[in-house]
Amino acid sequence: MTAAAPAVVELDQVTFRWPGQSANTIAIDELQLRAGEHLFVRGPSGSGKTTLLNLLAGIHVPTSGRIQMLGTDMAALSPSRRDRFRADHIGVVFQQFNLLPYLSILENVTVSCAFSQRKRERAAGAVEVKATARRLLRSLNLPDELHQSRVAELSVGQQQRVAVARALIGSPEIVIADEPTSALDADNRDRFLDLLFHEADAQGCTLIFVSHDPELSQRFEHVMELADSAPRSAV
Questions:
Q1: What is the set of domains in the chain, with CATH numbers?
Q2: Measured distance CA(155)–CA(60) in Å, rounded
Q3: What is d(CA 222, CA 235) in angstroms, rounded to the nearest whole number?
Q4: Three-state DSSP class for residue 233
Q5: Which of 15, 65, 109, 188 is the most buried (most CB within 10 A)?
Q6: Helix (H, G, I), strand (E, B) or coil at 44
Q7: Residues 54-72 pLDDT 10s
Q8: What's the CA gap between 46 and 44, in Å, rounded?
């Protein structure tokens, strides 16, 4: 019998409570995700979705319990080492994209490699980073003639694709997407998800996707509901 692959993301009895509050913002009994698995996290505004993402990314540490990312106990790392871990191993698609308006599309994609030697090496070496970025952009339907354009010249949908390429360059093991489809109509939303899944699957990365839109959950193999302060586990 083949042994199960180790968990890429593992939460055990995790709670998070803001200072001065009497109730937990996050209370999760357990969660395990393996390489290449997709998790959909849903819940209304104020349910703790962004807080959970910040815990997974090492921006916050839990009040109690344990969060392991790639076998690393995040709370055991110093803040600077958590920053380094995030730069090396995690790609993030932000709700507002967080693209740099004074850089070109190509520069926006490659900028994450400037902060991580590991991502730079995984993007085929410093000389080939731009070539890898161009391949990603093409795969996301952004042709070469746009690559030197400023992001302000792009549509919302095109900006989202640039954000996905930036998150995926350097083959991070984990990609976190924070409500990236909130500004899209249904057709563009579905096309965006198709592109995101295709690229994530091509790289074998674990995808954690947060949204308040329950219709999207049917496309994911794992779903976590954040609705109240009760303990939760992935299903």
A1: 36-59+78-225 (3.40.50.300)
A2: 33
A3: 6
A4: strand
A5: 109
A6: coil
A7: 999 999 999 999 999 999 9
A8: 6
Residues 82-91 pLDDT 10s: 999 999 999 9
Integer angstrom CA distances of residue 40 from 133, 135, 140, 202, 210:
27, 27, 22, 19, 6
Instruction: Report the C-alpha gap between 103 and 109 in whole angstroms.
Output: 10
73: Cβ contacts below 8 Å, ≥ 6 apart: 66, 67
**pLDDT one-digit tens code per residue, 134-181:** 988 998 889 999 999 998 888 888 888 899 899 999 999 999 998 888
Residue 205: which residues within 8 A CB-CB, separation 6 or more? 35, 36, 91, 168, 171, 172, 173, 174, 175
Q: Which residue has the tokens 């393996």?
A: 34
One-letter amino acid identity for 180? P
